[in-house]
């Protein structure tokens, strides 16, 4: 009888220990579940924001009457890729003159097609690996993003410089007029009021100077500034580039880009892809800037 009572007590102690252990572990497990639910909600929210950003980019292309290139497998026949119509003019129209010249330099560098190429050169064919084409497309998106960031930065710095110069010129003019006699000062001020001023920076040859300024400005970036301008500021933008590239070049079932397929295409189609990618990156910079004022995006 004593042994049975002892065994019962041991069982009771064991059960009590199990209950205490469960009570101690339950809040931790509950906390883990809450954290997991919060993570899932955050992922859903991020996906929704990315969808909104993508739709805004799609709207910008629609406003240009330029359809985005569909999945490449739908544009290919017997390993031959052709994208028609080219829509080169529409895709180039979104850029300023100085930015467009830099974009044309990029096209010439990555596909070997000069800006003054003939129609025959445009329709000449070449072979390219699909994986390399996908990387070229993604890199061109980042290049368009970089150009938009760099050109905006360049415009801002130039405006600040012009404002500073204008203030200095105005201050020097006032100091000069204060040194003149009263009669001569009135005559000078009267003469100045009759002269039509020419806006600063709009003289002949200004466009050529702008082209050189932008090129030199971009080439003068140090590695840190270059990385900061080329890197997407938000995780949503970086993920959107990845999703869009995989949707365009990925396999129908897995979405993973194929690596071993070599396709034949024309330089005109390659130019169309690069121009679209650069425009996508430029639009992405604008949309990211806009969305971030409404919803705080995650820093990349």
TrEMBL record:
InterPro entries: At3g17800-like, DUF760
The protein's name: UV-B-induced protein At3g17800, chloroplastic-like
Species of provenance: Gossypium aridum (American cotton)
